[in-house]
């Protein structure tokens, strides 16, 4: 092992120049969804097929989101089908 290569206590030795790949999840998605759920902020959800829906996030878990829509049926969306979630401009439920 080269003399200038050091490890921190409790850290496995890695060859120099190799980086650890980034984590799959950063927690930002959960923070964002919790914030808009707690504030009951109106959102627009765009699905991967281009369909856009507006409403409020009532519930979510690892695989799905429940969107409550005023004047319409509540829908459960698979996260894998969601392309984009953003707060509704003007805060008017996207209508």
CATH class of the domain at 28-89: Mainly Beta
- Give the number of helices: 1
Beta fraction of the residues?
25-35%
**Quick check: average pLDDT?**
84
Shape: elongated
Q: Over the alpha carbons, how many angstroms does the gyration radius reach? A: 21 Å
The ordered H/E elements are: HEEEEE
> Which sequence of strands runs across the widest sheet?
4-3-2-1-5
Largest sheet: 5 strands, antiparallel
Low-confidence stretches: none
CATH architecture of the domain at 28-89: Roll
Question: Which properties best describe this structure?
Answer:
about 100 residues; alpha+beta; SH3 type barrels; five-stranded antiparallel sheet; about 30% strand; elongated
Write a compact overview of the structure shown.
This protein is an alpha+beta fold and 95 residues long. The chain has one helix and five strands; from the N terminus they run H-E-E-E-E-E.
Describe this structure in words.
13% of the residues lie in helices and 32% in strands. The longest helix has 12 residues. It has 95 residues and is an alpha+beta fold. The chain has a five-stranded antiparallel sheet with strand order 4-3-2-1-5. The chain has one helix and five strands. It is elongated. Strand 1 and strand 2 form a beta hairpin. It has a domain of 62 residues: SH3 type barrels.
